[in-house]
Design goal:
51% of the residues lie in helices and 11% in strands. By secondary structure, the chain is α/β, with parallel strands linked by helices. The protein has a four-stranded parallel sheet with strand order 1-5-8-9. A four-stranded parallel sheet has the order 10-11-12-13.
């Protein structure tokens, strides 16, 4: 496994930089083209994957991938309207699936997903077809908004609950199904019109969680839903997951409820069962991530729960985060002293800088995340505005969890060619690619985000070395302990060899 980069560049690259500078100062005008070539070569060596060496078979596969990538990028350069990463994912998703690059990325062993949220990791189609047709699911219409929940016998005093299977009968059933689907997904024919700004996109995003949570927190459904989430990742050649969860209260039809520690143990039991069924899957660790907009008293309760979780499930609990729309939630500064009291007992993984604003409290969350020794930073979208923070990210080797599609769908960036992660890739910062909430916008697994990063955000010249580096990073910056990391690396290497052998022979 490649060791993650710190701040020190390889000696060979430094020497190359020295040569380029020497030419810039001393070279005669006739050496213009030599100087130009050296600058481009230096940049290629500095970018993500520049430190990775490919063997002969990997070079063959790389040539295949790059022929496909360059054709797609060059076609987009000639006809920008056709370039898929420049289009909103909500309208481009089906076209992305036809991409030859995407088809290869589906087969690529991608390592781990380190930033994904509990009730959003499963495709909405599974939720619709598998869960909404189950028995004991009731529906209630409140001012044109549907609510779904499982009951043995519903309390009719709180709402006029109707058994969903009964409402699906009759002439209006088609219209009723459309309403359910609309509330399950952000998919829309016109994203610009539907989500003209960040707040509108987040309002829809939040409404989906509010709609699905009462239905998904029925314990048998929650278990099946999570197992399906692991299965969708596994089928997409992902081998490990670090999941952020609010640990919502689960329920059974007999009225029994399950608190945070019990829910965490349910996660572990399902994960253990999945690993037994799929021995080449590494497993999952949990990041407890309650809502960031909370009172001081609620924060104290959250931190007490985090400590209890770590005490009872020390190897399964990765750490603590806060979630929700960053611009509308409380900044990390508000809770900094309490968070500092956690010490090294509970590792921190903060969402920070998921904003277009500069100098605001949201933007400054990046400063607090670094000072609080966050192991990784979720999104870090505003990072480029903070040169000192970027310096500390290098020094402390803090990985940035980049989720391209999430940033686009939630209206931070319209054209992924303009995503700030392009600079992180160009200088080989510690970066991992994650999928955030794929089920809510029609993605499945990690390949869609890999595609957007590889084709849309990275340089045209970024190749198989960059993809290999991303997979390597996802294991290196995970919460796996030393022995788990060795096993994960061994299993990933095995899959990588199979992938290379398959595509090198297919040439």
């Amino acid at each position: 496994m490649n060791r993650p980069y710190g701040i020190i560049l390889p000696v060979a690259i430094l020497l190359l930089l020295d040569v380029a500078v020497a030419y810039a100062v001393k070279a005669p005008r006739d050496d213009y083209w030599i100087e130009r070539s050296l600058i481009l070569k230096t940049e290629q060596n500095i970018m993500i994957g520049g430190d990775v060496k490919l063997n002969y078979k990997e070079q063959l596969v790389n040539q295949t991938i790059m022929n496909m990538k360059m054709k797609e990028v060059d076609d987009g350069f000639a006809n920008p309207r056709n370039f898929l990463p420049a289009q909103n994912f909500l309208t481009a998703a089906r076209q992305i699936e036809k991409s030859e690059v995407f088809k290869i990325l589906k087969k690529l062993p991608k390592g781990a997903v380190l930033h994904s949220h509990d009730t959003a990791i499963v495709s909405w189609k599974y939720v619709y077809w598998n869960i909404t047709f189950r028995p004991n699911l009731y529906v209630c219409d409140v001012s044109g908004v549907l609510h779904l929940r499982f009951f043995d016998k519903p309390d009719m005093s709180e709402c006029e609950w109707m058994l969903l299977q009964n409402t699906r009968q009759g002439n209006r059933s088609g219209m009723f199904e459309e309403r359910i689907i609309r509330q399950l997904t952000m998919a829309t024919a016109d994203p610009v019109k539907s989500y003209p700004d960040v707040d509108t996109a987040w309002a829809k995003f939040t409404s989906i969680f509010m709609f699905i949570t009462p239905m998904l927190t029925y314990r048998p459904v929650y278990e099946d839903h999570f197992y399906q989430g692991l299965l969708e990742l596994y089928r997409d050649n992902v081998q490990y997951l670090e999941l952020r969860s609010t640990l919502p209260t689960l329920y059974d039809l007999d009225g029994k409820k399950y608190g945070p520690v019990e829910v965490a143990k349910i996660y572990k039991n399902v994960t253990d069962r999945f690993v037994r069924d799929h021995p080449d899957f590494i497993g999952m660790k949990l990041i407890y991530a309650p809502l960031r907009k909370c009172s001081d008293m609620e924060m104290e309760a959250y931190l007490a729960t985090a400590r209890q979780l770590k005490d009872e499930l020390p190897e399964f609990i990765a750490g603590f985060d806060l979630v929700g729309q960053e611009d509308k939630g409380y900044p990390l500064e508000k809770f900094a002293n309490r968070l500092r009291e956690l010490g090294d007992d509970v590792q921190l993984f903060f969402h920070a800088g998921e904003t277009n604003w500069y100098g605001t409290s949201t933007d400054q969350n990046l400063v607090d995340a670094v000072l609080l020794n966050s192991k990784r930073i979720g999104h870090g979208y505003a990072l480029l505005k903070h040169p000192k923070v970027m310096e500390l990210v290098r020094k402390k080797n803090i990985a940035i969890e980049v989720a391209p599609i999430s940033n686009q769908v939630l209206n931070l960036v319209k054209d992924l060619r303009n995503h700030p992660a392009s600079m992180l890739f160009s200088e080989n910062y510690p970066v991992v690619i994650s999928n955030d909430d794929p089920g809510l916008w029609g993605a499945r697994g990690l390949s869609y985000d890999f595609y957007e990063a590889f084709v849309g955000i990275m340089s045209r010249d970024a190749d198989l070395r960059a993809l290999k580096k991303l997979a390597s990073n996802s294991i290196a910056y995970s919460s796996l302990n030393t022995e788990e990391t060795k096993r994960a690396t061994k299993l990933w290497n095995r899959r990588w060899e199979v992938f290379i052998e398959r595509f090198s022979n297919a040439r």
